Here is the input.
Amino acid sequence: MICGEQNCFKGILRGVESFEMHNFVCSIMKSACYRSFVDTLTLLVLILYAYFTYLIAQISVAQLEHSQIPFLDLVNQPHLEGADIWILKNQGKGPAINIRYELNLPNSPKIMQSICSLAPGDHYEMGRGSYHEMYQRKYRAEYESISRKRYCTMIEWQNGEKKTTFIDNCSIKSKKQSIQTA
Here is the structure.
């Protein structure tokens, strides 16, 4: 097939007079078309590769975060002197920082208190009290992981049973509430 017969190359080949030169220019044009197609295909593959690499990086970050989530819980430690010791214990796999907790007593104002950071397994003594005293209270702990993701643990008693609720990515309450450093 003679390249000059194709419509796509007619305008380019008008000035070419010899048959050999005509075929030479035609082969260059065809290879340019094929190369352009291959370059476009390569670009699409690179874009897909970059997108999937981005997704893998995001999943990696999420896996790392999930492997280091702190979890604060209110735990009872029986004491020989009668009154139990109640502690706020980090039972998660990562450190809890910027911890604030709230004790809700009946007929009392809500007060947020800040405490030190807790490494996994560490605890903070909340006070002494019997189960009967604790049944009347509600607790809320707000804290962050090392990556600054926010978490909350809410604890209340319903029909004599402790109910613990873990909230992932909670919003820390505004600073309008009074804060005391323990």
